[in-house]
Amino acid sequence: CSGLTSVTIPNSVTSIGDYAFYECSGLTSVTIPNSVKSIGRSAFYECSGLTSVTIPNSVTSIGSSAFYKCSGLTSVTIPNSVTSIGTYAFSGCSGLTSVTIPNSVKSIGSEAFADCPELLDVYCYAENVPSTGSNAFDGSYPEYATLHVPDASIDSYKAIAPWSGFGTITFIEDFTLADGEEFENNTE
Asked: pLDDT tens for residues 128-138?
């Protein structure tokens, strides 16, 4: 449905199925309601016109190739409810410059963020390094990018591929603790 430009998903929907919006290249933005628990395999595959997507806090898994080749996306914030990011989930998102991965993520599939050559900043709030395919950032030039992680976890990320391949690994300056209280990390 290449002519489809917008879609409203009602609150009664609990999952977005496999291939639901496959190659809907005219789709520019989508708001996924809080009732959705999972985004299926290739759900937004090659939705190249998609410039923004709001993933709600109800989603626990992002399927393989879910946002594959969504070249219009520039930044993605994954909510703190997601525990797994599938293989190739954001692969080929050539416009992606920034990604935020929450503390809840336990696993990241192979090539999940591969071929994202504009990726400059990855914010990973996970204090325990997620189980990650060693080629998760292949073709995304992590050696020129900055990985931002919790201060206490820097050495853990530096010791494990593919995280160790980032050119700069630094601590997240400000982050919110579990109870919502802000924590400032000062270098002084």
From this structure: 999 999 999 99
How does 6-17 read in b/e, with b if 16+ C-beta sit within 10 Å?
eeeeeeeeebbe
Burial of 102 (0-12, 13-18, 19+ CB in 10 A): middle
In sequence order, the β-bridge partners of residue 76 are 99
- CA dihedral over 142, 55, 51, 2, signed as positive or negative: positive
- Distance between CA atoms of residues 25 and 107, nearest Å: 29
Note whether 18 and 39 are within 8 A (CB). Answer: no
**Tell me, what DSSP letter sits at residue 155?**
H
Q: Quick one: which of 98, 100, 90, 42 has its CA closest to 70?
A: 90
What pTM does this model have?
Answer: 0.90
Tens-digit pLDDT profile for residues 82-101: 999 999 999 999 999 999 99
